[in-house]
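Researcher: Go.
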Amino acid sequence: AFCVHFRLKMTTKREKSPFFYGIMISMKTVRELALEALYKIEKGQAYSNLLLNEYLNSNGLNDADKRLFSQLVYGVVARKMTLQWMLKPYVKGRMKPMVRLALQMAVYQIVYLDKIPRHAIVDEAVKITKKADGNYSSKFVNAVLRNFEQRPIEDAPIEVKYSMPRWLVDLIINQLGYGDGMECLESLLVQSKANARVTIDRDEAIAILEEEGYENVLPSLISPVGITTPKGVLAKSKLFHEGTLTIQDESSQIVAQVMQLEPHHQVLDACAAPGGKTMHIATYLNETGKVHALDIHEHKINLIKDNAIRQHLTDRVETHLLDARKAETIFDEEQFDRILVDAPCSGLGLMRRKPDIKYAKTEEEIEHLPAIQLEILEKVCKLVRKGGIITYSTCTMNEAENAEVVNAFIEAHEGEFALAEITPITPNLERASQNAMIEIYPHYFNSDGFFIANIKRL
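Model: Structure:
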């Protein structure tokens, strides 16, 4: 209402001012913003989760609009191959990206969002296409959507049904078996919930969040210090700004909790950014303990520093702009009680939270990762004291980057390093305990896929 009133009061000269232009930009509809975001994701200008947060924090959307925006962006990206298959009978030849994305967004709403009337979906799709690409394209979109009839998804190939490249479908089913693999694929189409770790009493934290208006805040099933909620931006909470709540997936929270940390420990976090695990490690330390966090990018080092300031942990965190494979150049042999190698990986465990990953990765691209992961272990292993522990973790479901890397390292260092048993920190985690390692698949707890192993220096 303010924007409309403001425009009526403006002179022609003022209408052309940058201030007025900024106001008009803010009047974009939710679907216009979603189409814009989808275009940027497709062009590789940003990861879906990062772009989503940017849009949610900068466009003045109310809670209902934020939920619809998130549904549209995540839904279209997560089901891209399915939506293309559904549209195929109605479209011949290539389409401009904006037109194709507008059609996919409309079909996603028709098929998967039953609370929005079809005529409203079609009308809005036509409007935003006209704005984005002109009258001809809007007529084309109108014609396609007026004739569109949903195809039975049961008729689609498995890779289309789950909108997943076939090599990834095969990888998951080969590792889990058909039944468990299908359950995993199904779970990856469910939008992520919001997760956080708290450093105050968890029940107290939940009560404070509920007073702020957050709904359905629940204790994590697998992390004693974790909370979850199906909706809401926890980074805007009072607890976040006070530094007693930090955004971190449930699976990621387990890492520090199984490292057997003691207050005086000297710890190396070899691949630290953005610092979630670094800060969690620091909460176990006192004034005599220290965690040294490494990363190769200065902006990520700054992110770690910012996290340490917000969480009041600067006295226990020291950052270093350094490749983990060169750690031996500044640290002494046997300097650390614990080392965390949260290794660079394919990130396949994050496909629910970052659905664009599954289209960006290729089988050939991830084949070289185990060599890099092993190299990092080789370079840091002499820095842990005898009797100390190296914790190896990844956010992927690819066994070649997980158990196979750990087993290869131990085999190469027989008699010097051995696998150390990990005791599940909650009863639910027993499901994920395999061969003294923790292997979490997304469908186990509706969390990220994750792998953790403890390697002890003998």
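Model: Residues 1-26 have pLDDT under 50 and may be disordered.
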